[in-house]
Amino acid sequence: MNIHTVVPVAASIGAVLAVQYLLSKRAGSEQAVKLALTEITSVGWSFVALQYCFGISNRTYLIWVTKEMICGAKVRGVLPSPTAMTERWQDPMFYPRPEIVSKYRDIDPESPQFKQMDSANFQIHIADVDSIVFNAKKKWGMGNVPSSGRLFIRLKDGSTIELVLLGAQDGPAIKNRLLADGFGG
Questions:
Q1: Which residue among 65, 72, 96, 155 is least packed, with the fewest CB closer than 10 Å?
Q2: pLDDT in tens, 127-137
Q3: Domains of the chain and any CATH numbers
C-alpha cells in the first residue's frame, strides 16, 4: 500500500464515523417522529421497515396500515451500519427523519398525492395481497443495524415485497395484525 491509497481510505473511514456519530447524537428525533405521527389522524397504525433496492442501496420506510392499504412512505435514504451503537438504535422511531415524516401531516396515505410525495413511496391494496410471512432470521448484509426479522408481503401477481423490521419490533404481532386486518390469508 502506498500513501495515495492510505489517505483516501482513512478519509473515507473518518467521514463514515463522523456521520454515524452525528446521527446517534441527533437530539430528540424519536420524540419528534412520535409527535408528528400523532398529528397524522387518518392512519390506522404503523411500523418502521427497511427495503433493499438494487442490491446495495436501502430505503427506510414508515409503513402506514389503513383499512384498505399498506402504504410505505420513504422517510430516510441509505442507512449505514453503525460502528458504535447506542440504545437509541433499538427504537424504531430513531430511523425516520422527523422533518420528512412531518411532510405527511395533511396527506391521505391512500391518495394519489401520497405516491407523488416521493417516487419510492408505495401503496398496496388489500385485494392485491396474497399472503404475509414473517421470518425472524436477520437479513444478510445488514451489518450491525438492529432488526427484528423480515416481513414478506406476497402479492397476487406473484411478486414479493421484503421489509426488514428496524430496531426492536414485534414481528409476529405485526404479521398477525396485518392478517387480522384482512391482508393475506
A1: 155
A2: 999 999 999 98
A3: 27-180 (2.30.29.30)
